[in-house]
Design goal:
The complex is a heterotrimer of chains A (462), B (321) and C (292). Chain A has 462 residues and is of the alpha/beta class. Chain A has 2 domains: 205 residues, D-Maltodextrin-Binding Protein, domain 2 (3-Layer(aba) Sandwich); 217 residues, Periplasmic binding protein-like II (D-Maltodextrin-Binding Protein, domain 2, 3-Layer(aba) Sandwich). In chain A, the strands form 6 sheets. Chain A has a 5-stranded mixed beta sheet. In chain A, helix 2 links the parallel strand 1 and strand 2. Chain B has 2 domains: 97 residues, no CATH class; 211 residues, MetI-like (MetI-like fold), CATH 1.10.3720.10. Chain B is elongated and about 90 Å long. By secondary structure, chain C is mainly α. In chain C, strands 1-2 form a two-stranded antiparallel ribbon. Chain C is globular. The chains are: A alpha/beta (462), B mainly alpha (321), C mainly alpha (292). At the B-C interface, helix 2, helix 6, helix 7, helix 8 and helix 11 of B face helix 1, helix 3, helix 4, helix 5 and helix 6 of C.
């Protein structure tokens, strides 16, 4: 027994030694650098950028750090947005907040109310007073509006994305569709999906081997994720509807019982009912697309960097289809992704450093690099017009869909109760595709539930 | 042979073996999947392929596999041809053929699992050994000493076991931050150095030791602490081993607490690393299974090594609560 | 003889480490949580006292009742299922057969593994398109089921996986209980010509009741606190909220919607329910337990 305990102790010492060794290796260079420039202020940046996105970001952060005399940005990946939000909240309670973090608009609102973040307008005005530029003039309008609360800019757009269609050009060709003409309207989307589905149903029926029969039966025209609130809201925009607005009495009401929402829900129902569409859990539809089993999927433009190394056929990326209203195609999409907050930790040096980094990262050239590396939207108009982006678009036409949709972007209501409401919507959308009941009923219930939540909302700036 | 003498036990074996397959199969499936390429995983054949393509020896492939083997060879050849070309002319859609360890390399490069392992081992050993020592001290006092408030303190300890842990996360977090322990090894270890369950569990065993033994030893001039480590502890080895194993397991598998109290990548433990990896990898099942295998396998190996000790201690202490 | 009534002040020294840590990290937080359950608090702002409003609101919250109902369903199915399976296997293992050590080891493996890793593996097994389970079912020409995405199957799927994970633990405890039953009772019964079923009914079952009772109490408490598998396998509480259990609902309220006071009120109601169940077990069921 004694020998065993001594053995455990020695093992423990070895582990401690290895940890110290690893610690020296990973933080060593910065520690040494820190000694050389003891005036470098550390800026802690919490984010949720993993995988290929994280690689691009860390590469840029390293470059920033290398070229910096005063600041050192420490990038900490928190895994996902859920975890990130949890950690930020917990850290605020404990007064141990990071200097910058990615966040959604609803949290930004909470932070403003409790005076936890720095108002960026103040920083911009100070810059202008010192002869710097007025960044706000160069920010893409919808992104500016998305981050403005009570007339002031409180958060900075950082990684904003739009939904797009991905379509399998090889499959289009095979089933007799034009591989260079993705669906322009929702009707076309339904029609093309049907064409693809019918083609493979026929193949399945005519198949000689049992394996082929089974294989072709699992081919679908269109794929998306289940209980997809984003997709539903996009559709409402395409049908020319609205999500939430203020009525004459200045009370917030939702538009879910109106025709655009009902049409949005029934469009999806129809596609599933006719068998041309298939809803999968989470990212299953992307796997199906990669495997060549689904011809068209709707997903974020960001999915491109996650999928492209696995795709072995020719594919295209297109803007979301619209709906013909008064002889014109009405497009509309809803932004996704997050913004950056600078926390008010009481140290002006850290705030200055954080702001310096945010400006650097979103500047015309760096913003363009970020955008083409990750497919996120750039923040500045000048980035969109930059040579970097223009060249990249020329080299890869699949990048276009993101920039093309900039003109008709909207954003979800920035209400603190929105998270809860979104969950309610997801429940109804899920129920609608599971039970296939009358869309109008679901929409009426949605409207009733959401409005009764909205009645207690005291937020401004939705 | 027992079985030959008693053929009535053959059905017992059949049932037990079927059960054992059911218990083990998810792990076998996990390990097998961890060596498969995404294409192989996503194929919707009806067959359950246990031996992944990447590790299957050539002679293992029957004639019906010939087609696939050919294709595999062609893919490998194509990849080599592409590699021979200068970078700019390569067809980017030709992918590197899957090698058997690719999923593991993917997982290991995506997250610093090496450091996660070190952290986990450090935290687990520290907490297991110290908490056992503390708990045995307290249990010893409860079993042998008389002192005021004994029952009150004991009831208080028992009460701490009833509330769901999730409710205590935030108060604990706030307290840790007040004493500036958040994001440190202290936060990972100290709160778990005491366990009411362990005290309760060991007290039962100390109470079974004859009181006369204690009295006699004290008369012989044995100090209380000497009695504790020379007589009481060695007599309670089996329950200590059981407790050590359970403490070890629960610390190795702890997830929510380390997730909340650490921020730096360098302080993450294996379970947190796994969950971050699973949100990053999405539906890349191969790397996910590789990462799961890496977190599970060390425990299973250790369990096999400690198996004998464990069974002995279980047999004598399993049901004494 | 040492004085029996003498107070050992040194005892406090022995207790100190455990008591200090438990008070700091386990006792005080309970009181803190209890206090917060009377406040409205979103963590960032300052808490606002609202009396028993959180508790009142709880009893008008349909999702809370749904989560209680789901938890009860989970407990009522998983606890007996696990008890009967593990008792059966333990009885088989209690035979004088070879390889008991190997069987015990194998049956215990799911217990030692982390729920995180295991949930990832079962997510894959339950996958509607290429999951293992549907592959096996297809041999019997059963159509694929979207286990975790089907409101009728999601909870059973989680129960199935939980039973698999916990079985080994109960088997070990039952085995210990079985080994405490004196062998001569069976010999006597065999001499009297009792069948296996009669032996089970008149010896094993009654003498095993203390063990069964122990397992029943502990698994009931455990199943009321079920969380990890739901969190890892069915995001948002499953299809049509069919796997929304109390602790997961509590977790969402606290860490996703940041209603801390409300979440903690829920935690205390759950605590009361668990306490009442334990008390009921102790006072009512234990009377039926046969202590030798």
């Amino acid at each position: 027994m004694r020998n065993f305990l001594i053995g455990v102790f020695i093992f423990w010492l070895i582990i401690v030694g290895l940890i110290i060794d690893h610690e020296k290796k990973t933080t060593g260079p910065t520690l040494i650098k820190g000694k050389n420039n003891s005036n470098k202020t550390e800026i802690v940046f919490w984010h949720a950028m993993g995988g290929p996105l994280g690689i691009v970001m860390n590469r840029m952060i390293d470059r920033y750090n290398a070229g910096q005399e005063n600041y050192h940005v420490k990038s900490v990946n928190m895994g996902g947005y859920d975890t990130l939000a949890k950690k930020v909240l917990a850290s605020l309670v404990a007064n141990e907040a990071p200097d910058i973090s990615q966040n959604y608009e609803t949290l930004t609102k909470k932070f403003i109310r409790h005076n936890k973040i720095v108002c960026l307008d103040d920083l911009i005005e100070a810059d202008i007073a010192k002869g710097g530029e007025d960044i706000k003039k160069d920010i893409i309008p919808v992104l500016l509006e998305n981050n403005t609360f009570g007339g002031k800019l409180y958060s900075f757009p950082f990684n904003k994305s739009v939904p797009v269609l991905y379509y399998n050009k090889d499959m289009f060709k095979e089933v007799g569709l034009d591989p260079n003409a993705p669906p322009k309207t929702l009707d076309e989307l339904a029609e093309f999906s049907k064409t693809i589905r019918n083609y493979y149903v026929k193949l399945s029926e005519e198949a000689k081997t049992e394996a082929d029969k089974l294989r072709f039966k699992e081919y679908y025209g269109y794929g998306c994720s289940k209980a997809n609130v984003w997709g539903f809201l996009n559709r409402i925009m395409q049908f020319g509807g609205y999500i939430v607005k203020r009525n004459e009495e200045d009370i917030l009401v939702s538009g879910f019982n109106e025709q655009p929402a009902i049409k949005a829900l029934s469009h999806l129902q129809e596609m599933v009912k006719t068998g041309s569409a298939r809803e999968g859990q989470a990212f299953d539809h992307q796997n199906d697309f990669i495997a060549g089993k689904v011809g068209i999927i709707e997903s974020s433009i960001i999915s491109k960097v996650f999928m492209e190394e696995d795709i072995i056929f020719n594919y295209g990326v297109a803007s979301l289809p619209g709906v013909i209203i008064n002889d014109k195609i009405n497009n509309g999409v809803i932004l996704s992704g997050s913004n950056i907050n600078i926390f008010n930790n009481g140290d002006p040096k850290k705030i200055a450093g954080a702001w310096d980094f945010v400006k650097w990262f979103t500047s015309t050239e760096n913003g363009a690099e970020w955008s083409i590396g990750t497919t996120y939207l750039p923040v500045r108009k000048s980035s969109v017009d930059s040579k970097t982006i223009k060249d990249a678009r020329k080299a890869d036409s699949n990048l276009n869909a993101g920039y093309e949709q900039l003109g008709h972007c909207n954003f979800e209501p920035r209400l603190t109760a929105w998270f809860e409401i979104r969950d309610m919507l997801a429940d109804y959308i899920e129920e609608s595709s599971l039970k296939m009941g009358n869309p109008k009923d679901y929409c009426d219930r949605m409207k009733y539930d959401v409005d009764s939540k909205l009645r207690y909302v005291t937020d401004k700036d939705e | 042979m027992n079985e030959i003498k008693h053929p009535e036990y053959i059905p017992v074996h059949v049932i037990l073996i079927l059960g054992a397959i059911f218990m083990l199969f998810p792990f076998i499936w996990m390990i097998s999947t961890s060596f498969k390429s995404q294409d192989e995983i996503l194929s919707t054949t009806k067959d359950i392929v246990l031996l992944p393509d990447s590790v299957r020896p050539e002679f293992f492939n029957g004639p019906e596999e010939a087609d696939r083997v050919e294709r595999k060879k062609a893919d490998a050849k194509r990849w080599e041809e592409e590699q021979a070309k200068p970078e700019s002319e390569r067809d980017k859609r030709v992918r590197k053929p899957f090698q058997w360890l690719d999923n593991y390399t993917y997982a290991l490069t995506a997250q610093p699992f090496y450091r996660f392992f070190l952290n986990t081992i450090f935290v687990t050993i520290t907490v297991t050994s110290v908490s056992l020592f503390f708990a045995s001290l307290a249990a010893y006092a409860f079993a042998f000493f008389k002192f005021p408030l004994k029952d009150t303190i004991f009831m208080m300890l028992l009460g701490t076991m009833m509330l769901p842990q999730q409710a205590l996360l935030i108060p604990n977090y706030i307290f840790l931050s007040k004493i500036h322990w958040v994001n440190s090894y202290l936060a990972l270890t100290v709160p778990w150095l005491a366990s009411a369950y362990a005290v309760f569990f060991l007290r039962q065993f100390f109470m079974q030791l004859p009181k006369d033994l204690f009295d006699a030893a004290v008369i012989d001039g044995c100090t209380r602490f000497q009695f504790y480590y020379k007589i009481a502890l060695p007599l309670c080895k089996p329950p200590m081993v059981t407790l050590a194993i359970f403490t070890f397991l629960s610390n190795w598998n702890a997830f929510v607490w380390p997730l909340i109290v650490t921020n730096d990548t360098n302080l993450r433990v294996i379970q947190v690393g796994l969950s971050y990896f699973s949100s990053e990898a999405g539906t890349r099942w191969g790397p996910l299974m590789a990462a799961s295998t890496m977190t599970i396998l060390p425990l299973v190996i250790m369990y096999f090594l400690a198996q004998k000790q464990f069974v002995e201690s279980q047999a004598t202490s399993g049901m004494k609560e | 003889m040492p004085n029996k009534t003498k107070v050992d002040w040194g005892a406090y020294l022995y207790l100190m480490p455990v008591v200090l840590i438990l008070v700091a990290f386990h006792v005080l937080p309970i009181f803190y949580s209890l206090a917060v359950s009377f406040y409205e608090w979103d963590l960032i702002g300052s808490p606002e006292f609202i009396g028993t409003n959180n508790y009142k609101q709880l009893f008008h919250d349909p999702m809370f009742f749904k989560s209680i109902w789901n938890t009860i369903k989970y407990a009522v199915i998983s606890v007996p299922l696990s008890i009967f399976l593990s008792m059966g296997i333990a009885i088989l293992l209690n035979n004088p057969i070879k390889g008991i050590g190997v069987y015990r080891t194998i049956y215990f493996i799911p217990v030692i593994t982390s729920i995180n890793a295991v949930a990832i593996v079962w997510n894959f097994i339950y996958h509607p398109d290429f999951g293992l389970l549907n592959k096996i079912l297809s041999w019997f020409s059963i159509d694929p089921v979207a286990w975790l995405q089907d409101p009728d199957w999601a909870l059973p799927a989680i129960i199935f996986m939980s039973v698999w994970k916990g079985l080994g633990h109960n088997i070990i405890i039952f085995l210990a209980g079985l080994q405490n039953i004196p062998k001569h009772l069976y010999e006597a019964a065999r001499i009297d010509g009792a069948s296996r079923w009669q032996q089970f009914k008149h010896i094993t079952w009654p003498l095993l009741t203390p063990t069964t009772f122990f397992i029943f109490t502990m698994s009931t408490i455990g199943s009321f606190q079920v969380f990890s598998q739901v969190y890892m396998m069915t995001p948002r509480g499953g299809p049509l909220k069919s796997t929304m259990v109390v602790v997961y609902y509590l977790y969402r309220k606290a860490f996703e919607q940041f209603e801390f006071g409300y979440a903690l009120a829920m935690a205390f109601v759950l605590f009361m329910v668990i306490f009442a169940c334990t008390l009921f077990n102790k006072l009512y069921l234990e009377k039926k337990v046969h202590y030798s």
